[in-house]
Amino acid sequence: MDATKPEILLVEDDPAVLASIRRRFQMEGFNVHTAVTGLMALEVFSEITPQLVILDLMLPELDGIQVVRELRKQSSTPILMLTARDSVADRVKGLEEGADDYLVKPFVFDELLARARALLRRSQYGSVATDTLQFAHLSLSPATRQVHSAGTEVNLTAREFDLLAYFLKNPRHVLTRERIMTDVWGYDYEGSSNVIDVYVRSLRDKLEKSSRPRLLQTVRGVGYVLRD
After folding, report:
1. What is the Cα–Cα distance from 182 to 189, expressed in whole angstroms?
2. From the CA atom positions of the chain, what is the Rg in Å?
3. Same CATH fold, 133-226 and 7-122?
4. DSSP-derived secondary structure letter, 61
5. Can you tell me the distance from the alpha carbon of 80 to that of 140, in angstroms, rounded to the nearest whole number?
6. Measuring CA to CA, how many Å separate 211 from each of 122, 147, 197, 205, 223?
7. C-alpha span between 160 and 177 (Å, rounded)
8. Domain range list for the chain
9. In angstroms, what CA-CA distances link 116 with 79, 96, 101, 213?
10. What is the full per-residue pLDDT of the chain (228 aa) written as tens digits?
11. pTM for this model (two decimals)
């Protein structure tokens, strides 16, 4: 394997789909490791520590949501879920458990590639800022990807980290859901998606454990604002 290429873990139990996606990513310059079951995914992940996980929701042994839950106990590596069109509840559940993005089957490979590259840019490949961002009792370091609330370190997923950084860069500015989606996710989402609400709720749960005043506030009918 070429150590200069991004390492990704592709988890898919359909042999034809697995082979096709693996071949396309290899053609695009990725080192691709594969797994066909949930348990195998956890084993391979612990061996290679990839920069990105592309994870099918429906898997034998452990399903995709269970895999996400286990991975989040040990890592903030970006996770992109591949889901069935009729599993809206499962998609939301996956995001709540710590997945960073999802793509509905059937999909075009170019969109999968774009989302994979976006996640990589926003994680260790994309952190170019070095100045610590601070607001009230929150502190975020882009260089080390660490977050502290009232001096206590808070473990965030890659997407949660990027979302919080965006709010910290725009304090006291009311941000619409559309603007957040464009600036943080980098593409247009389905209008009915509540993905931002899911992530804001998750951030609140993690940042407000110490009973601190709520900083991420809802502006009804518009979006969100970070203010004290």
Report:
1. 8
2. 18
3. no
4. S
5. 24
6. 30, 17, 21, 10, 23
7. 15
8. 7-122, 133-226
9. 9, 19, 9, 35
10. 555 688 999 999 999 999 999 999 999 999 999 999 999 999 999 998 899 999 999 999 999 999 999 998 888 889 999 987 666 777 778 888 888 888 888 889 999 999 898 888 776 544 445 578 999 989 998 878 889 988 889 988 888 888 999 999 899 999 988 888 878 876 554 444 578 888 899 899 888 875 567 899 999 988 999 998
11. 0.64
Six-digit token string for 130? 């070095």
Two structure tokens written together for 174: 């009311």
Which residue, chain included where needed, has tokens 């009311």?
174
Helices marked H in 127-194: 158-169, 177-180
Q: Does domain 133-226 bear CATH number 3.40.50.150?
A: no
167-181 in b/e form (b: 16+ CB < 10 A) is: bbeebeeebebeebb
Question: Among the CATH numbers 3.30.565.10, 3.40.50.2300, 3.40.50.620, 3.40.50.720, which is that of 7-122?
Answer: 3.40.50.2300
